[in-house]
């Protein structure tokens, strides 16, 4: 049986209860140390992610390392403003006095990460947790063991042991961690494990942020240039070989746009990755045997037509070609399970309303992408659907806009983070009222109450 982590939690709780982490100087020092960890070890971190996930090195630098550095810089630049007490006006009946919301550290936070962006998805929440004055245990994914071991070593070298600890391991270690009493649990991963985490958190009434997955739909109609739309969709889908939580999962296309879009997707894939995508240095690989076999089976069981790609080779680092499918049934596994790989079904819908109905008939997605030059169509999606985020004309990059909170809704998660949202999410919002004893304005409501007051 895996050992408990009670002593680790106690060690981390101490600076919080001693008030050390309330000080913005402490928080800035941790954020700067974290920034140095990323910047000074950029090459090692890049090599580790490439080794574990098989994504191109440039992608690692852009979507993981630069992303984290930008997040830290945004937090550092705004820390004083975002953590300052938020004054609240008092009603006349409460005057004289003053009221404010104080953002105070929650305490000790557990961050559990997935394998697909193994650096970004633990270090960006970590930056937010430290900025909010928390101490943290980080549990990276066991499916990226090189990254997990490197993070454990680097965190030990750059950050104080009573500020951040990294615990490596898989289900047994995470299960043991979840038995401890945390002040907040920040989980990124599948909806299935999100339920496990939430059940464990309920035992201690611990609040949770759940950043989960799902199927993010994309809508395309005949009002947009199919070549431009296809290039954006192909880029969003095939970055990290489709293993992004916000990747366009499937495309809904109107009949007038279908043929043009499918041809344009084929062209975009050839432009990006050449005639033989397996030889392209810009195409990532599938993380492991399990996911490779799952994706190959998903394509085989789709009942659809492969219009582009379809090739695969487990011995070539788990290669799977960028694949476009048409003619798949709405109830085939590729349309009901999260794809999480470079397989893009294109399904025909009669019009935007039919697409809205399809979205609304399914669990609420993490992201929704709309490609339409018609303002009424764009409004229809804004007003008639819900999703974690909505982006018109471009996938993925809404989560790299400082100021836009990132998070899911319903099956795709709860809570939000990045930038100010991280500080809001990972702080306790404490209501503080101050009222002078004199004048004693409450005298009017003290007992004994005359009968005329009781009838009010
Ligand atoms: P996962 O849920 O299998 O694992 C995530 C973490 O949970 C890992 O650290 C793992 O060790 C731990 N874990 C797994 N099973 C557990 C159990 N039974 N008990 C306790 N802990 C357990 O997810 P994954 O395969 O690593 O990541 C892929 C999923 O994550 C996809 O569904 C994807 O959409 C989602 N995701 C979401 C976001 C987001 O920001 N919303 C980002 C990336 C990935």
Can you give keywords for this protein?
16 helices, globular, seven-stranded mixed β-sheet, 18% strand, alpha/beta, 456 residues, 2 domains, 18 strands, binds nicotinamide-adenine-dinucleotide, Aldehyde Dehydrogenase, Chain A, domain 2, six-stranded mixed β-sheet, Aldehyde Dehydrogenase, Chain A, domain 1, NAD
Descriptive notes:
It is a single chain. With about 450 residues, the chain is an alpha/beta fold. The chain has a 7-stranded mixed β-sheet with strand order 10-13-14-9-8-15-16, sandwiched between helices. It has 2 domains: about 5-210 and about 415-430, Aldehyde Dehydrogenase, Chain A, domain 1, CATH 3.40.605; about 220-400, Aldehyde Dehydrogenase, Chain A, domain 2. It is built from 16 helices and 18 strands. The protein is about 40% helix and about 20% strand. Helix 9 (about 225-240) packs across helix 10 (about 255-275). The N and C termini lie far apart (about 65 Å). About 50% of the residues are buried. Helix 8 links the parallel strand 6 (about 185-190) and strand 7 (about 210). The structure holds nicotinamide-adenine-dinucleotide (NAD).
């Amino acid at each position: 049986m895996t050992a408990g982590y009670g002593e680790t939690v106690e060690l981390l709780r101490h600076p919080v209860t001693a008030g050390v982490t309330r000080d913005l100087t402490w928080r800035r020092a941790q954020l700067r140390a974290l920034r140095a960890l990323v910047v000074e070890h950029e090459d090692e971190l890049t090599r580790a992610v490439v080794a574990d996930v098989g994504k191109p090195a440039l992608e690692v630098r852009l979507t993981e390392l630069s992303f984290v550095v930008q997040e830290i810089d945004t937090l550092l630049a705004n820390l004083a403003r975002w953590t300052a007490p938020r004054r609240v006006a008092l009603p006349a009946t409460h005057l004289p006095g003053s009221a404010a919301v104080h953002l105070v550290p929650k305490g000790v936070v557990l961050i559990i990460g997935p394998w697909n962006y193994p650096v970004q998805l633990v270090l960006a929440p970590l930056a937010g947790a430290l900025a909010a004055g928390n101490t943290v245990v980080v549990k990276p994914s066991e499916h990226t063991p090189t990254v997990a071991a490197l993070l454990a070593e680097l965190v030990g070298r750059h950050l104080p042991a009573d500020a951040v600890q990294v615990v490596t391991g898989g289900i047994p270690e995470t299960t043991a961690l979840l038995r401890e009493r945390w002040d907040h649990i920040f989980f990124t991963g599948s909806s299935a494990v999100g339920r496990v985490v939430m059940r464990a958190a309920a035992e201690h009434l611990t609040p949770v942020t759940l950043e989960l997955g799902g199927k993010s739909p994309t809508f395309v109609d005949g009002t947009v240039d199919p070549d431009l739309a296809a290039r954006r969709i192909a880029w969003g889908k095939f970055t990290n070989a489709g293993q992004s939580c916000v990747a366009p999962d499937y495309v809904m296309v109107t009949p007038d746009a279908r043929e043009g879009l499918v041809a344009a997707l084929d062209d975009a894939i050839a432009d990006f990755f050449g005639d033989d995508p397996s030889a392209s240095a810009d195409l990532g690989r599938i993380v492991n045997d399990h996911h490779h076999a799952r994706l190959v089976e998903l394509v085989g069981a789709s009942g659809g037509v492969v219009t582009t790609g379809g090739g695969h080779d487990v011995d070539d680092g788990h290669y799977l070609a960028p694949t476009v499918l048409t003619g798949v049934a709405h109830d085939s596994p590729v349309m009901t399970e999260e794809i999480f790989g470079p397989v893009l079904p294109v399904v025909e819908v009669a019009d935007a309303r039919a697409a809205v109905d399809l979205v609304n008939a399914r669990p609420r997605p993490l992201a929704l992408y709309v490609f339409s030059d018609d303002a009424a169509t764009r409004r229809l999606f804004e007003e008639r659907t819900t999703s974690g985020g909505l982006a018109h004309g471009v996938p993925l990059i809404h989560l790299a806009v400082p100021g836009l909170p990132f998070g899911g809704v319903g099956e795709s998660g709860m809570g939000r983070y990045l930038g100010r949202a991280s500080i809001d999410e990972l702080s306790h919002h404490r209501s503080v009222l101050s009222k002078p004893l004199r004048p004693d304005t409450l005298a009017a409501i003290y007992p004994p109450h005359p009968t005329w007051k009781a009838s009010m």
